[in-house]
Amino acid sequence: xxxxxxxxxxxxxxxxxxxxxxxxxxxxxxxxxxxxxxxxxxxxxxxxxxxxxxxxxxxxxxxxxxxxxxxxxxxxxxxxxxxxxxxxxxxxxxxxxxxxxxxxxxxxxxxxxxxxxxxxxxxxxxxxxxxxxxxxxxxxxxxxxxxxxxxxxxxxxxxxxxxxxxxxxxxxxxxxxxxxxxxxxxxxxxxxxxxxxxxxxxxxxxxxxxxxxxxxxxxxxxxxxxxxxxxxxxxxxxxxxxxxxxxxxxxxxxxxxxxxxxxxxxxxxxxxxxxxxxxxxxxxxxxxxxxxxxxxxxxxxxxxxxxxxxxxxxxxxxxxxxxxxxxxxxxxxxxxxxxxxxxxxxxxxxxxxxxx
Amino acid sequence: xxxxxxxxxxxxxxxxxxxxxxxxxxxxxxxxxxxxxxxxxxxxxxxxxxxxxxxxxxxxxxxxxxxxxxxxxxxxxxxxxxxxxxxxxxxxxxxxxxxxxxxxxxxxxxxxxxxxxxxxxxxxxxxxxxxxxxxxxxxxxxxxxxxxxxxxxxxxxxxxxxxxxxxxxxxxxxxxxxxxxxxxxxxxxxxxxxxxxxxxxxxxxxxxxxxxxxxxxxxxxxxxxxxxxxxxxxxxxxxxxxxxxxxxxxxxxxxxxxxxxxxxxxxxxxxxxxxxxxxxxxxxxxxxxxxxxxxxxxxxxxxxxxxxxxxxxxxxxxxxxxxxxxxxxxxxxxxxxxxxxxxxxxxxxxxxxxxx
Amino acid sequence: xxxxxxxxxxxxxxxxxxxxxxxxxxxxxxxxxxxxxxxxxxxxxxxxxxxxxxxxxxxxxxxxxxxxxxxxxxxxxxxxxxxxxxxxxxxxxxxxxxxxxxxxxxxxxxxxxxxxxxxxxxxxxxxxxxxxxxxxxxxxxxxxxxxxxxxxxxxxxxxxxxxxxxxxxxxxxxxxxxxxxxxxxxxxxxxxxxxxxxxxxxxxxxxxxxxxxxxxxxxxxxxxxxxxxxxxxxxxxxxxxxxxxxxxxxxxxxxxxxxxxxxxxxxxxxxxxxxxxxxxxx
Lengths: 356, 356, 282
Description:
By secondary structure, chain A is of the alpha+beta class. Chain A has eight helices and 21 strands. Chain A has two domains: 4-235, 3-Layer(aba) Sandwich (Rossmann fold); 243-355, CATH 2.40.50.140. In chain A, the strands form four sheets. In chain A, strands 6-7-8-3-9-10 form a six-stranded mixed β-sheet, with helices on both faces. A six-stranded antiparallel β-sheet of chain A has the order 13-12-11-14-20-21. By secondary structure, chain C is mainly α. Chain C has two domains: 2-53, no CATH class; 72-273, Orthogonal Bundle (MetI-like fold), CATH 1.10.3720. The longest helix of chain C is centred in the first third of the chain and has 31 residues, at 72-102.
């Protein structure tokens, strides 16, 4: 086990070009030992490149990779003590579950009794103890994926387990079970788990720390709560949360006030900028329906009220801007005009799409 | 015009795929078939399309015997959950395919195709190859093809389930608008889904299916508020409604030794005895004076946190309206919104609904 | 490290290329030699090391009356037999494969997989086993020593290859594409011809390539089932072997016979690597 440090890493697949396109723009990151991480972003954002750099499948064109003090930049995967779980379960179908789990230890010529002890221990954690003598072929998809994972867990020297969209082929009902197992494993073994996905729900559920990537850059790293409440960029605001964050072009009218069209709103942010690319962002969860006007309230025309059962989603228009508010189902919504309040403490101000 | 299914059964193996299904679909209306994976949704759609012949029962459409008409002569359209298009044709020819098959006049085809492409936002992609499109665009092509056909029956089999989370969110909204527009065409629209929120949002009639049997059908609001059985209540809620055994005795509702609540007024008339109690995850809230539960796992979805809780043998899921990570085995205190309690007979039938 | 890796990579590729190309260079140089140059030790470069002559080549096209061996007739026989048999095998094999992939057949314990195995099993037997039945079969039909007879036998040999490749190919084409065609108003035949077939070109090309190769190189059946009227190229070339082997004309004939395969392989490879076909179906 080890802390993983990416030191000024950047990667381009065309290192000899004059103006190379970087799949991964320069960054430094460190992954704490025993952490539970998710690498989240839309396809093509560079998350798989990042994963491959850590696993050793890709040698970064710039920068260095360390496992604790040891530089591993040019080391191949086998020497790095990294375990990987892919989208599709990798199992040896003709072997039994026991032999599958024992395989990495057998290859490293561990003594039999040690292998047996370790395999039984891991099998118990994974709830596979009753299947040890079964052929791996006949198991369900989630059990097979657990075996892929178990082969990483039997080795005590593993620095991290990297998982690339590991739940893609798993039935929705089983996903929950597997996600829960992953958390338990992390709690018990304190093995660093790094989980790559494009699905925000999966990332938010699984990880304590989420690294959001977009176009080869890390745009925000933080806890699910941080990402939701204070998105660092408008992209994160859009990508995290459902519905996406409401975003409006605005201008600064004073240090703690912005205006959208003729309407002024108080905010908690200190704005010292006259940039003409200012945006106000607010989550639809924080917008409230009021019966009378107060600070930061506005009157909007109701376009639609959707009943989702668990909540209602109001879509309204205000100065030709669309505004979405998520409210309790029990609330009665007037059918034409509605007064909405944007609480100052939940307003995020973005300059050039970056949070101030 | 209406489509009538009369006692349709299909049992290719030991288990029923469709079990004695009788349904009536009226033209100009939208129906959502809601059920879990492998509940028989796809089989039902394929049976209506004519791709599968039931073992018994009859189907009538517009007073003709539908079962005697082969697929290619039934005027239906279908969109699959996989992105199914004709790979050898470009976008335009894909959409024109059913019209050409019908030997429609070339000029008319041209205008119909254009109209359909406008509806789904594919203008400018006419001569693209299917392989050059993203998943979302491919599904738009499939949708445009089924719209251009102006079929009397439009079948959609979980059309969004294979798309990325953010894309799904956007397309779902567009879909809803599209269907509202296509209402004028007086076709029957049948949409299969596993997602209760999707079914609620589409806001048509909901047909709940499980193990090949229809459990309930009615308006979205009615099925949500008054589920006929405990099973329906589970299927139509995400997270599934918490259903637990309980005992009603002397004005208290006993779930287990420590979780017992005072019977609210609306339940006073209910005779003592054993029941199933149903409480939605959203109707459980954090309360310092409440019952202590252990957190088994917390999951974050969109902007909510689902807490999977346990108190001895009693398990339930609560939705907390904020993004927050809870640790496994952390103790939280919760309470139940008494005004929202459902009661079901032990056999599963609804005994009391808060909306009755 | 990476530089060494690149070097090694190219080193082995070049080495391999030499192995593949060397026999061709050898055959080409031999085909321009005369008796003395062939027997006088290894030489490679014309004019410098040996005096090139066209004798080896001209013999191939001269009629027997002028001391030649005239391979033109057998050449066209071979092309005709191979192409006809391959074409029929592909057409029938594709249809059979589609049926096996899409419909469920059951006759007692015999199911789809058994039928597919029956096709492939035709290739398991050593050809020698089949030679006598085929001989009797053709002779009772009066088709010995005829092009039609050879085509018939070759279809038996080639169709299993086509069925085998195409069943696998169709199994990978989503069934929903056919279903969509049916829903869009095609009857099952139209669905096959308008939708399935145009998307099966890559598979058919690969199957066709294999059929042509296996048909073209067959010596055994051509040797047993023909005598004088009809001769195929492989038989004619082997017949060159007499008391003194004319290495020069043998080399020339070998080059001529392998040329069509190389051309076909290049065309198919170009077609497939355009990507628009191979990537059409995942």
